Amino acid sequence: MRETSARKRPERESPPRLSGRQIAAICAGNALEFYDFVVYAIFAGQIGRAFFPSDRPSVSLLASLATFGVGFATRPLGALVIGRIADRAGRKPAMLLSFSLIGVSVGGLALTPSYATIGVVAPVLAVLFRLLQGFALGGEVGPSTALLLESAPIRRRGLYVSLQAMSADGAVMVAGLIGVLLSTMLDAAALDAWGWRLALLTGLAIVPFALAARRTLVETLAMEEALPPRAVVADTRRIVVLGLCMLAAATVANYVLVYLGTWATTTLGVVQSSAFASVMLVGLGGVLCDPLSGWLSDRFGRRPVMIVPAAVLAVLVLPTFWWVAHHPTPNALYGASTLLAGVLDLSTGTILVAVAEALPRARRAGGFALIYAIAISAFGGSTQFAVAGLIRFTRDPLTPAYYMLAALAVGLIAMWRFPETRPDSPV
């Protein structure tokens, strides 16, 4: 009798059904994060000249990249603060707060006048908006992933959560397309003056619609299950360490692939437009393979769908980079981007659901947010700088492949030791 009655608890048997509009609203924060990342990377030179003018272009560029990097520093803080709100007050209020802050920060940066107009206040505001954005993004992914997981039908959790990764890769694809269009249609003066601002504001357009849809969401955190003070969950530390290793490996691999176009341009001499196109293909690979990864994990389990593609990718990385290095043509770059991104995303789409599923409900939003934020902060903000520095030091064009291979080795060990989390019954 007790078992029957437990199975009838509403929040476990009948999760709230989400409309396509609501799912899009949940995933919008992750999409805007990656859209902003790629747009900022593409237009780092223009942003540097707007806020950090210098007689030496390299100084402006470095200042711009440093401003971009400071946003990573506040992500763990945002994960801690907003994640705790999600695990105590609910997923919905935390998601409304984080996405509102994302809108303010992205819009604020896009609309901040240049150094020529307001002087030193311009770079100060740029840094403050990046810090605010990092804080908001750090707190966004945990509550949104938890709500997707907890709202999904029990046998479709992998598919639902993989839509988070698909939205991010879709945003990368759109950002690459925007970069191609603006760099083709506008001259250098227009790009410096307002082109990069238009690119950021284009992404901002989704904010009011996503906020309106998020207000219609049903709360999935049962308040009596909210985290009590000083609660200790057995085995959580092991899940955190392994999850951090897996997400760090996926982060390094993804950022190396985004850097692939820059590597081909700066190291191999491939034209800039081909680099933008390769970024689009990296995003397209994720759009196609992320949901496939989630669907496969619902059928065959999380562990095999994480491990097999990651192992295949480890085998492919070195020969693929070698091929591009010895055949530095746009077609070789496009083929490498599509192949490696597709295989990678067959694994990473499942990593998200496995880590979120392994965490107890009362710690899920905050725990996942913190693991994700630390992985992104430590490795997302450093990978491209590390790869560029190592290429310069070693003078070996295959350095990005070695760097990715090392990360994949760590990730595969963690995946092998990670428990199978595909449930037979609701959490």
How would you describe this protein?
The chain has 427 residues and is an all-alpha fold. It has two domains: 19-214, MFS general substrate transporter like domains (Growth Hormone, Chain: A, Up-down Bundle), CATH 1.20.1250; 234-359 and 382-420, MFS general substrate transporter like domains (Growth Hormone, Chain: A, Up-down Bundle), CATH 1.20.1250.20. 81% of the residues lie in helices and 0% in strands. The chain contains 19 helices and no strands. Helix 13 crosses helix 18. It is globular, with a radius of gyration of 21 Å. The model is unreliable at 1-13 and 223-234 (pLDDT under 50).
Write the layout of secondary structure elements.
Blueprint: H1 2-7, H2 10-13, H3 20-42, H4 44-51, H5 57-73, H6 75-88, H7 91-111, H8 115-118, H9 121-151, H10 157-185, H11 188-204, H12 207-214, H13 236-266, H14 272-300, H15 302-326, H16 330-358, H17 361-380, H18 383-394, H19 399-417
